[in-house]
Fold:
Amino acid sequence: MSLRLLAWSALALLGAVLPWIASDYYIDVASQVLIYAIFALGLNVLVGYAGLVSLGHAGIFGVAAYAAAWLVAAGFGHLPAALAALVAIVLVSALYALLSLRATGIGFLMITLAIGQILWGLAYRWIDVTGGDNGISVPSRPAPFGLSLMSAPSFYGFTVLVFLLAVLSMSGFVRSPFGASLKGTRDQPRRMTALGYNVWCIRFAAFLFSGFWSGVAGLLFCYDEQFVSPGMLTLGSSAEVLLMVIAGGSGTLAGPVVGAALVVIMKNVASAYIVRWNLVLGIIFVAIVMFMPEGLVPGSARLARWAYAEWQRRRRAPAALGSER
Amino acid sequence: MTPALELRRLAKSFGGLRVTAEVDLAVAPGERRLIIGPNGAGKTTLFNLITGELRPDAGSILLFGAPVTRLPSRRRAHLGLARTYQIITLFPRETLLRNVVLALLGLSPLRWNPFLRLDRQQRLFAAARAALAQVGLADLGDRPLAQTSYGERRRVEIAMALAQRPKLLLLDEPFAGLSLDERRDVQKLLQSIPREVTLVMIEHDMDVALNLADRITLMHFGEVIVEGTRAEVVAHPKSREVYLGV
Structure:
């Protein structure tokens, strides 16, 4: 427990001092880590707590960004555009849920994949609206309460706030009665029905919650890049965030954050030194699957417990030998 | 008096196989009913129809006089119907206490609340502890389910059902796989259930089950063959035929 607290405090300290010690480039990498962490936390609600693996979450991520970018490009202010994007997130999540919750397991995965591909197709081919491959540029970042977010440190600060809000809502959700209901539907859906739970409605609500945070991440991404393109909605994007969740440890709070940090840092930092950084990432994933199949966070916790028990055992062993004599 | 459970010409087929063939059944409030029959007689299917996990092809089901044939499973739970499973279906990652809490939460409006802390719902936990104490597992509440024995899990199944304070409790082979001592414990436990609860039980272990039952229904190939008191059913030539193959 204390180890966990130590890890969290170290990360919080690093996050707090970063704007003063790092260059704009690394501050932007940190913002991206947080944006993808929010995205992965959202997906984790389904993968980790509902037992439903979605391979189409990039669609929600992308729709949020496109909605805001399109409205801003059309001349609307940032506030109405952001509010409309939030409504779009909820609507598109509801659409996903209505279609995909007819199934679980591989069927659920295929339906979410299909919807994601349809949305990607729209972004790519509906050129009149989406600009196709050219995407849509967003000329400015929003300025909440008159504070400009144009500089890297100020945008980082804003992202940290949204990230903390996401973590807070997740940790509350996980411990709530509704969170327990959701985990129950993951482990024993049939039993839950017999106990009086409406399994479908519980999954639907969880999908909206998951989609909401994934969409918020998309909105932040649009502000960060000031540009949206079909690349956001690709199957590769959906798979990447799923890998973040699984590599970090699904069904934990820290797991998706660690997974997001791993992938984003590899992508931005390692790629500067190694041309085939994808290969390195692949090797890391294979190693995780082989040695920590439950993910980095639960896997490290298991390793730490084992090391502690081993240390205790060795400390006691000589004493036991001594008493035998 | 209105029966606690009434089935009228209930029928269900899986493809060409008739698993429930026009079954008529009425169980009085407070009654202890035993359903027996060889493997494949359609006993568990009958339970699944009553709880709503399966939809019947024809016929109707009434709970306390109210038709529930088209009602989803979860709504029947809210009407006072609870069941245990022949194959234990519990929540392996949770403690015994939280297993029972989940059963209680299922009937509470709290189950939709995403803001409160479940751990702080003292009333739920107190009720869950009481249910565990009732089945003799008061000391094991904080133990993860994965670290308990088969017999203990059987009792958790019953605790979860009892915690919901059902009016009608369906027990699917509550003695299956238990040792002699455990059987005695579960028998005592079932005997201690107040008569406000109507019990319908599927069981193969005649020695313990017959002692509990007021009336017995014998099923074979999806049909009710014989129904009556213990003496009537035991003496009936057809039950000898079905069970002894004479």
User: Anything to note?
Assistant: Residues 58 and 238 of chain A are 5 Å apart (CA to CA). Chain A has two domains: 24-291, 298-325. The first strand of chain A starts at residue 136 and ends at 137.
